[in-house]
Amino acid sequence: MLSQNYDGLVSEGVLLAPERFCPIPPARDRARWSAVPEALAHKWIRFADEHGDFAWPALPASAYAAFKREGDLLAYLNLHMERRSILGAYVLAECLEGRGRFLDRIMDGIFAVCEETTWVVPHHNAHIRHNDKESLPADADREVELASSGTGALLAWTWFLLGDRLNEISVRIGERIRHEVGVRLVQPYLERDDYWWMGFAKAAHVNNWNPWCNNNMLQVFLLLEEDAGTRNRGVRKIMRSLDEFLKRYPPDGCCEEGPMYWGASGGGLFQCLDLLYLASDGAIDPFGDPLVRDIGRFIYKVHIDGSYFVDFADGDAKVAVGGAAAGFGRRIGDARLENLGRSAKPAEPPLRSWFFAYPPLAEMFEREAGAASRDAASGTAASHLREAWLPHSQVMTARETEGTAEGLFLAAKGGTNFEPHNHNDVGNFIVYADGLPVLIDLGTENYKAQTFSPERYELWYLKSSYHNLPTVGGLVQQAGEAYRAARVSCSLTDEAAELALDIAGAYPAAARLEAWRRACRLVRGAAARVEIEDAYVFGAVPASLEYSLMSPCRPDVSEPGRIGLPYAEGKRLAVAYDAAALDVRSEEIFLEDSRLQGNWGERVYRVVLTEKQPALRGERVLSMAIER
User: Fold this and answer.
1) Per-residue confidence (pLDDT) for residue 362, from 0 to 100
2) Which chain positions lie within coiled-coil regions (predicted)?
3) How many CB atoms are closer than 10 A to CB 500?
């Protein structure tokens, strides 16, 4: 799409000259920077001051080797991310304040980063992965990947915003930035086509890495590259690679990696397209493309309330969409998407997570850029879409009432157990009440070596037994493309929303499942409720049959036939079940991982309903309603 429509324009010189390209005002434009909302400015200056004595921690070889030795991903990654987060915070604080207080610290940070042996983090280092005996990087390890390209983008923005001020200190600063970025990123990006994430190999699997890396490299080429020929070559290659991402994207616009990854995939794509639009003075304008528009709209189709989003797969339940959603909505003329972005709570400065300069910069000036469209959009609900169906990805979302989080919310999925960042979760569902979580998808812990290894599915939170799914004779769903939903249908009416599917194919042959028809239904009206109907047929009677329910709410199972899940003061969801046929027990699971704690607190609960007498065939219904 991009190459076919715009490659010729780039070749003919449509890109603005570097001195005319100004997506964000440089720091010397004090009038624009002084107009940044005070709360945003204060947040970044305060964060920079709080870390004013930052000592640029060493990146020990032993920490790099820890990934290979012990599977410890964070020993090195946390230090790597801290350096970049603090440098980025100093840059933003200096731009906002304009007093020169942070310039020496920025200079120290630039040289600390430029002196690193490699910008490639250990779990992304293909050179080491291809050598089973090696655990340390070499100076020649110049892979273009998420971390290295992100480092290049940070340095590009640092120079773009503050280059004139840094030149007053020393011309060596800019020379060093251009040298390191050129050797480590620009040269390999232009010379190599074999990075899997570029998508140029026919069988290549393309995911959020494509727009993530291309977004970073586009910032490098547009903000830092002085040679027009090199700049044009880089932009043209980026457009070709983004085309491969779009070719492989689900045609319903669904980010199958989950809403958390939309920021890198859909949001990253938007930032690429927006930069191309700005760099060409509007001549490159792909925002009318139906797939591009659906990729943007996906994020409000899976919005629950506030920072809560439908979190199938590895993603978190709490997501910050901010400026990307607002800008995307403005570009495609979708007021709902724009308002979702504007209503989102601004992200906090990161310390031990990825630092991206462009999103907070865009957030600071998005309100200014979108002033005209904001008035037109102001009367539209931020999101709270009544229902959505993504047929290719087989995801349904539905709430009681359009425009409000009050009442019940249901999301359910089919799909396969071969999706990006997959969990074994075909047929899983989640339920929220009044915008708060009641039955949940846990998501994942902090990543570690096992997360991306052949032993991935031994992790407890990836198993179907820790999703809202059945376990058959102790057997759980299996990973792989063959394990998928069948006979999938969705019905959306004023009265009800229903996803129906057969999940038998997600289980191994040893389960002897001939059919398992599941219907996940939200019924609207005076007797609003969620119903989960299961009808199964076995080839042989299973030794046991259990149904798991995962919740952050402490369950009350004292009343036979009724499970109480209190989700707020004086409010609970009641789950009705057949006490004559099912036994019930509750397990408390203490969460020690900081990522899970950030979503659910210190503990979650697993309610297990067990068939008293498993049979060849049967039907079960769980009915859920809010008690106020």
Assistant:
1) 87
2) none
3) 19
Q: With respect to residue 382, please indicate whether it lies within any of the assigned structural domains.
A: no
Its domain, for residue 405, covers 387-627
Residue 448 near residue 73, CB atoms below 8 Å: yes
- The structure tokens 């991935």 sit at 456
Residue 576 is inside which H or E element, if any? Answer: strand 571-576
Residue 254 pLDDT > 70? yes
Q: How many CB atoms lie within 10 A of CB 144?
A: 25
Q: What is the mean pLDDT of the chain?
A: 94
Tell me, what's the pLDDT at 368? Answer: 55
DSSP alpha helix (H) spans, 406-486: none
Q: What is the pLDDT of residue 350?
A: 86
| 333 and 444 share one domain | no
The answer to whether 326 and 370 have CB atoms below 8 angstroms apart is: yes
pLDDT by residue (tens digit) across 455-513?
Answer: 999 999 999 999 999 999 999 999 999 999 999 999 999 999 999 999 999 999 999 99
From 351, 377, 403, give the residue that closes a domain: 377
SS3 496: strand
Report residue 552 as tokens: 């952050």
d(CA 543, CA 511): 10
Instruction: Tell me the C-alpha distance between 503 and 505, whole Å.
Output: 5
Rounded CA-CA distance 117/95 in Å is 29
Cβ-contact 408, 530 below 8 angstroms: yes
φ/ψ of 354, rounded to 5, equals -60, 135
Other CB atoms closer than 10 Å to residue 139's CB: what's the count?
10
Judge whether 215 lies within some domain. yes
pLDDT, tens digit (0-9, with 9 covering 90-100), for 381-396: 557 999 999 999 999 9
Q: Report the alpha-carbon distance of residue 601 to residue 594 in Å, rounded.
A: 9
CATH number of the domain encompassing residue 259: 1.50.10.100
Q: Are residues 372 and 449 in the same domain?
A: no
Q: How far is the CA of 511 from the CAs of 244, 311, 415, 538, 543, in angstroms? A: 39, 28, 20, 8, 10
- The domain boundary, picked from 338, 357, 377, lies at 377
Q: In the prediction, which pLDDT does 367 show?
A: 55
| 534 strand-pairing partners | 518, 620
Same structural domain for residues 258 and 315? yes
Indicate the number of domains in the chain.
2
- In this structure, which long-range contacts are made by residues 127-131, counting pairs with CB atoms below 8 Å and at least 24 apart in sequence? 128/68
Residues 274 and 399 in one domain: no
Helix (H) or strand (E) holding 97: helix 74-97
Instruction: Give me the CATH number covering residue 468.
Output: 2.70.98.70
Q: Tokens 């997360």: give the residue.
A: 451
Q: Are residues 473 and 351 in the same domain?
A: no
Q: Are residues 163 and 73 in the same domain?
A: yes
SS3 label, residue 484: strand
| 203 band by pLDDT with thresholds 50, 70 and 90 | confident
